[in-house]
Amino acid sequence: MPVTDEPFGALLTPMPMRSAGERVAERFVTAIALGEFVSGERLPTERELAAMLEVSRTTVREAIQRLQASGYVRTRRGRGGGTFVAADMGPDSDEMIRRTLVPAWQDLTELLEFRQLIEQLIARTAAERRDDQDVAAIREAIDSYAKATTRDASRMADHALHQAIAAAAHNRHLVELSARIRREVSLGFDAEPYSPEVRHRAIRQHPALAEAVIAGSPDLAAQAAAEHFSLTENMLRELHARIGLRSATAVP
User: Fold this and answer.
1) Which residues contact 61 (CB under 8 A, 6 or more apart)?
2) How far apart are CA 112 and CA 182, in angstroms?
3) DSSP string spanning 20-88?
4) DSSP E strands: which ranges in the chain?
5) Candidates 1.10.10.10, 3.40.1010.10, 3.40.50.1820, 3.30.465.60; correct CATH number of 8-85?
6) Angle of the 231-250 helix axis to the 196-214 helix axis, nearest 10
7) Tens digit of pLDDT for each residue in 191-232?
8) Contacts of 2 (CB under 8 A, 6+ apart)
């Protein structure tokens, strides 16, 4: 056992513990940075957020206060009021995002890797078990996504497609697991990150995934799912690298 001259008091220093409100606020910052929420968008009420996130209203209140203090959201009173994503998060927003991503990075990447593995299994199983009803639902969702002209319509069609593929696996536990992971990734809102670039990639990837499932090709379906479900992780890595580069170039 190595000998040290350090007194125990110096070794056993207090470990900083993050509160539930701080963790929720961090996930909100990441969600805003990835485009899950856009400038001016109204957040659900405190009660609705507590139910969605399965936390107390006190935790939600603390998270909102932290977001307000950092300039991520604004609160309006009166009719038509509520909590809204700030249109301008100020010159320090990159640094705030960087401070948020660093401690949350490991948890987020592990969660996204877990989802990618599960969705590969779902796609593979769906390709083996799909029936005519499943095929019709998948094709309808693909068509809806291609025709979507708004952010919300794209998100709804994306959600419908992945629900249809999960349902085609004909295993309720896989369907429930897919939905639960999706809520964890999207902070409980069943809404994937969205941007014109994401839509451009999905327009190409969705048909490949859908056709592999419809054709009954398990290996191709799993491969297509792996590529498609790396989208969010790639966005996080790009954001992490971009913010890190900006922070480095800003150092005197």
Assistant:
1) 21, 46
2) 9
3) HHHHHHHHHHHHHHHTSS-TTPBPPPHHHHHHHHTS-HHHHHHHHHHHHHHTSEEEE-STT-EEEE-S-
4) 73-76, 82-85
5) 1.10.10.10
6) 150
7) 566 667 778 888 999 999 999 999 999 999 999 999 998 877
8) none
Residue type, 90: G
Architecture of domain 93-250: Up-down Bundle (1.20)
DSSP 12: S
Residue length, the chain? 252
pLDDT higher than threshold 50 for residue 252: no
The answer to whether the CB of 183 falls within 8 A of the CB of 51 is: no
Q: What residues contact 205, with CB distance under 8 A and at least 6 apart?
A: 224, 227, 228, 231
